[in-house]
Amino acid sequence: MMEYIGATGAPVKFDPVPNEDGIDFHFILSFAIDADPSGNAQNGKFSPYWAYTLTPESVAAIKKSHPNVKALASLSGWSLGDTVLRWYNPLDNQLWISNAFSSLKSMVEEYHLDGIDIDYENFPKHNSTFAYCIGELITLLKNQSVISIATIAPFHATTIPYIELFDNYGDVIDFVNHQFYTDKVRKPKGYLEAFKLRAGQFDKNKLLPSYEVNGRGIQGDAFFYALSLLEENGYTVNGVMIFSADASSSNDYYYERKSQDFLLNSTSVWKVVAQITY
Ligand SMILES: *[C@@H]1O[C@H](CO)[C@@H](O)[C@H](O)[C@H]1NC(C)=O
Ligand SMILES: *[C@@H]1O[C@H](CO)[C@@H](O)[C@H](O)[C@H]1NC(C)=O
Ligand SMILES: *[C@@H]1O[C@H](CO)[C@@H](O)[C@H](O)[C@H]1NC(C)=O
């Protein structure tokens, strides 16, 4: 499981989010940003901007009580306050990589993190250094055993730079948290088509279906029918990404519970219903 948490600033906590022993449950702290509080870029020096309630102590505590839990910091996100965040080409790539490495190493140590997620959402029109800088950063963080997990979060308008990253550095990228809710599909069959498209662009075994709680794209139990349809069509559902815990408290984490049921139980009721319905 991949669960974004902390992006809205609401005082969210890890404890209420249900996680099952048999599942690697990744909390993705949202977000670590290469900017000062006014949104000015800091040449690779990342700072944590997730909800203040997600303290280093609370990360340590949830990991101690639930050894299946891992914690990641997601890099960038859409905006910080009123500033829309974007990838910018650093003046000196090596300096940016070195600053990012040092600042993230400190953050990983302070917050007991296991990895990073890449969620840059805006790019310069041409000639981006994104794939090189981020690919080298992940490679270095893994080589120095600072992190053990790296994931990426493309959406429909950012596939090109992420494909470039994945093509060149796919061996250090563990999962693709594609934001299917931006693909504007609301039915299981459409979801299957979107999954086929993204599976061709990335790696079908690293690609995770995703769901936006109270948000865009497929909503409600149709999501679970879609997961069944993926399996009927020969895909393995290796995990589920949910955005986000901040919204899920409003429905008692229904989608987290059902997703984990699905992952634990390959003969789930959803499969039966999907066969009847679709
Ligand atoms: C764009 O690409 C050219 C040729 O590869 C390179 O010389 C130049 O530095 C690049 N510019 C930026 C802003 O990355
Ligand atoms: C780190 O990189 C060096 C040089 O390429 C390599 O010999 C070493 O095995 C790598 N270590 C890890 C943990 O990947
Ligand atoms: C798996 O799903 C079936 C059908 O809903 C249910 O009867 C069974 O109890 C589930 N098994 C587990 C281990 O959850």
UniProtKB/TrEMBL annotation:
Keyword Hydrolase: yes
Cited InterPro entries: Chitinase-like, GH, Glyco_hydro18_cat, Glyco_hydro_18_chit_AS
Keyword Hydrolase annotated: yes
Family annotation (SUPFAM superfamilies): (Trans)glycosidases
GH18 domain boundaries: 1-266
Keywords of the record: Glycosidase, Hydrolase
GO terms of biological process kind: carbohydrate metabolic process
An example molecular function term from Gene Ontology annotations: hydrolase activity, hydrolyzing O-glycosyl compounds
Coiled-coil zones: none
Entry's family note: Belongs to the glycosyl hydrolase 18 family.
The name this protein goes by in its record: Chitinase 2-like
Organism field: Durio zibethinus
Taxonomy of the source species: Eukaryota, Viridiplantae, Streptophyta, Embryophyta, Tracheophyta
